Each structure stands twice: as structure tokens, then as C-alpha cells.
Amino acid sequence: MRLLLFALALIAGSWGCPLAAQSLSNDPALATQSPSAARLTDIGSTIHYVVTKGATIYTEPDGKRPYVRLRFREPVYVLSTENGWSRIHTQDGARGYIDASDVSNVWIWVSKHRKRVYLYRGLALVLEVPADFGYNAILDKEKRGTEANPDHWRTPEGAFFVVRKNPYSQFYKALLLNYPNAEDAERGLRTGLINERQYESIMRADETSSVPPMNTALGGYIEIHGDGTGRAANWTQGCVAVRNDHLDLLWEAVSVGTPVIIEK
Asked: What pLDDT is attached to residue 126?
């Protein structure tokens, strides 16, 4: 729930300097704003998140006088950006300057109903592509699927983030998501799918923004990967598959830590 609330705050903000859509694709569909984003109220703040581990705020834009070190994926408010430095303040009130490359406002929205993947920079839609999903594209993921029970090869719903970029995937390239996350762990413990030790391991990974255990009954290795058909088919074991040329565009734009919202 914490990540979902942050993601909603992220996409509710207004950002300057949007990534030009034409730099990614000439598809006229890029002009379309997702209904989910359109419904959100512009709160007038410029929220980004930290994408570099060990990112530091400095008192001046010169990198000489460190002020405070930020947590990976910590949300910050960007007030202005000039000459490669962003003037920011944190939710705790710390103010100063940070290397502009250490923060991002890129996020991904995945719609299972529309069978589309949308890439945003703030509220600016910069890429929209068709996607393939799990065999059972209707229901939310609850546990690991198998060849004997393909009904559970489902694409999970919720708020996730890119926890690893894999350039050597068997499906061209892959953006690994942090499934199962804390909400999945709580559900799994409540329903008896995982034990206390597994629960604690997943919760620890969630708190440290690291790769969670993926060998439990909850399943894992949910990715946005290549080798998609481009025809909105249902064939994956829960992953989101896009065409390789589209994956290249996503790959260039996202970082480890990029929020990914998957909705029904």
C-alpha cells in the first residue's frame, strides 16, 4: 500500500521538461492520456524519486559540500534544474542540490484490460505499446502456476518497481519486477501459502528495495520482457511481453527503481 500511495502521488504531480514523445515513437496514439492519470488531481508539486544508491544532497551545486545522503527510491520535490543539478527538498524538509541524473519521474502503467503498456514522464505520456499477458489475463495472481495448473499463470496487479534489468533474458531483454511484494507476503501468510521465515524475507526485501525471494508458493520472476507478439495475446506465465523494438524503448527510459503500476 505504501508504494501504491507514493505512485499515485507521483503521477498526480505536474512536471516540466517532459521527454518528447517523438524521440521514442511516431505512433499518433502517444497523444492519448490514460483515464487513470486524467482522473487524478494536479497537486502542483514536482515529485521525483531517487534512482541512484548513495545519492547525496549538497549545499551548493558543486558537489563539494555534502549535506545528507538519500535513500534509494526516496521521493523528493524538484524545484528547478539547471546545468545538471536539481534544487530539491525532501519530505523531511532537507533542502539542497543533487545531481539531476540521480532522480527520475519516469513510471510505467500497465493495463490488463486494454492490453497495453504506457510509459510516462510525470503526466506526459511518451510511449504506448500493445502487450501480451499471462494465460489467465482476467484474474490477479495469487500463487505460482504450473503446467498442470496454468490457470495461475496470471499477471499480478498492484504497485511494483523495476528491481533488476536483465540484458541476457531468454526473452530478449527483461525488466524484473519486485513480485512478490509486501502486500503479496501479507496475503500469502494469511492464507497459509508461505511461512513466517518466507514472509520475513519478502518483507525485508521490500524494506530495502531489493530482489525478493521468488521460489515460494507465491511465485515470482514476473517481468516486462521482449519477444512479444504485438497482437495482445495471452501466452506468458504471468509476465508482460512486448515487441523487442518496444522493449528497447522502455529499456532506454527506465531505471532500476522505476515504479510500475499494473491494473486490471
From this structure: 93
141: which DSSP letter? Answer: P
- Which own/partner contact pairs does 148-155 have at CB distance under 8 Å and 24+ positions apart? 152/219, 153/236, 153/237, 153/238, 154/238, 155/110, 155/112, 155/222, 155/236, 155/238, 155/239, 155/240, 155/262
List Cβ neighbours of 157 (8 Å cut-off, separation of 6 or more).
112, 140, 141, 262, 263, 264
CA distance 230 to 63: 45
Q: Are 60 and 97 in contact (CB under 8 A)?
A: yes
174-194 in b/e burial notation, b at 16+ Cβ within 10 A? bbbbbbbbbbbbbbbbeeebb
pLDDT reported for residue 29 = 38
DSSP string for 216-229? STT----EEES---
User: Quick one: how far is CA 9 from the chain centroid?
Assistant: 14
The pLDDT score that the predictor gives to residue 9 is: 52
Q: Which pLDDT belongs to residue 83?
A: 95
Name the amino acid, one letter, at 50: V
Mean pLDDT, 10 residues at a time, the chain of 264 residues: 47 36 37 43 62 94 94 93 95 94 95 95 92 92 92 94 97 98 96 97 96 96 97 96 98 96 94
Residue 51 · residue 236 · CB < 8 Å:
no
> Cα dihedral angle (18, 23, 29, 34), rounded to 10 degrees?
-30
Whether the CB-CB separation of 38 and 103 falls below 8 Å is answered with: no
CA-to-CA distance for 61 and 48, rounded, in angstroms?
A: 18
Report the pLDDT value the prediction gives residue 7, as an integer from 0 to 100.
Answer: 52
Taking alpha carbons only, the member of 103, 101, 106, 102 closest to residue 126 is 106
